[in-house]
Amino acid sequence: MAATNPPQAAQQDWTRTAVPDAAPFAPFFRAALAVAREAGAIIKTAFEDGQAPPNPNIKDANDVDLVTATDQAVEALIQSRLRDAFPDYAFIGEETVAANNGQAPPLTARPTIICDPVDGTTNFVHGFPFVCTALALVVDHAPVVGIVYNPILDQLYVAHKGYGAWCNGQPLPRHRAAHGMDARAALFITEGGHDRSQVAMDAKIGTWRQALAADGKYPPVRGIRCTGSGALNLCMIARGAADVYWEVGLHAWDMAAAAVIVTEAGGMVVGDEALDEDRRKTWDPTSTPFDVMGRKAMAIRKHDVAFMRETFERVTDYPCPRD
Ligand code: IPD
């Protein structure tokens, strides 16, 4: 007898397999997933309109840090839905922070929703299809739920601490999980970012040069990629589609959701607690939590402390004010 496809409802319900009702933060996960899908519909409609937003505004007098009416409308929607459902949770959202002169509220032990309504705003403005909504729940400073939805490519990445990571019904990682970590075979993701100061450019270009041409101490990597979205860069690591991602200058909303997706996929992500040379002296890879507000991320697709230490040596860190 010919195999029949599972009923559509069952196909669509993979998120209940990924995060069962027994998971401690399942109610948040389901509410956040519903609003991420609503957000995705709004973003996709605006994206497919084919008209770049006429006047994307800039933030903090930085010509390359854009914001559009869609970013603001989507954050307002997410905030109202999730604050109604979880009134005791704190909220940190990219556009709410921007409206408060860039001042993020301090992250405390209290459950905190961290939201990037549109990560990849420059892509959104240009029609480059790496655009997503990223929603995280952070409890006692640690990300425990992550949802990253790219509505243009219809890729939904989810994770709940302790329950694994998934994309469109498939457990992560999807690619090359059997290969060891080896710089010579590595795809390295990094970004131009928004900070174009001399110190930042020296560090970034120095890192690119070192990664591509190497210096004799380490071999060159196979290639460099950028998606233009910090959250989607981390999801590429979780997929196993790239080996290393490093960026300084990210914000909590770019990193928090996808950080739990990386670790639940079996990867490793560290922040300022390990990238800053002084803080690294006391870094214990088994117990130091990822510094969500530290503006830095280094992620690798497998938990491999020795390879992580090697990658520290290959990038040039630089100072960045905390969120
Ligand atoms: C930016 C993107 C970009 C990264 C920047 C982020 P936005 O977020 O994630 O890839 O290089 O550091 O600020 O502005 O598109 O939400």
TrEMBL record:
Keywords: Hydrolase, Magnesium, Metal-binding. It comes from the Eukaryota. Coiled coil: none annotated. One of its GO terms (molecular function) is metal ion binding. It is an enzyme of class 3 (hydrolase). GO terms for biological process: inositol biosynthetic process; phosphatidylinositol phosphate biosynthetic process; signal transduction. The keyword Ribosomal protein does not apply. Its cofactor is Mg(2+). This is Inositol-1-monophosphatase. It comes from Allomyces macrogynus (strain ATCC 38327) (Allomyces javanicus var. macrogynus). The lineage of its organism: Eukaryota, Fungi, Fungi incertae sedis, Blastocladiomycota, Blastocladiomycetes.
